[in-house]
Design goal:
There is one protein chain. With 87 residues, this protein is mainly α. It has 4 helices and no strands. It folds into 2 domains: 1-51, no CATH class; 53-87, no CATH class. It has helices at 19-30, 33-50, 53-68, 75-81. The longest helix is centred in the middle third of the chain and has 18 residues, at 33-50. The two termini are 35 Å apart.
Length: 87
């Protein structure tokens, strides 16, 4: 998933269907514990930054506003979409 994994920063990307490349990447990670831990820590930081609840809510609201136009910007719609609104 190149949209999420940053090659050699948060993980290793291999071409789809390339089983030998995947095996080599796994072997590389298994033999480099410090690298694996560093990539894991970097991946966690990216996940916390990019996929935090508030950030994801903002992104979805922006998407809804783009798709629905003025309807999505109405106070009633925004209130209904708010994660703190009552059911």
């Amino acid at each position: 998933m190149p949209e999420i994994v940053r090659h050699q920063q948060t993980g290793l990307l291999v071409p789809r269907g390339e089983v030998f490349a995947l095996a080599d990447a796994i072997d590389h990670l298994l033999s480099n514990r410090l690298l694996t831990e560093a990539m894991g820590a970097a991946g966690r930081m990216v996940a916390l930054r990019e996929f935090a609840e508030g950030r994801m809510v903002d992104r979805f609201l922006e998407l809804y506003q783009r798709l629905l136009g003025p309807v999505a910007s109405s106070p009633a719609t925004l209130s209904a979409l708010s994660p703190n609104s009552s059911p």
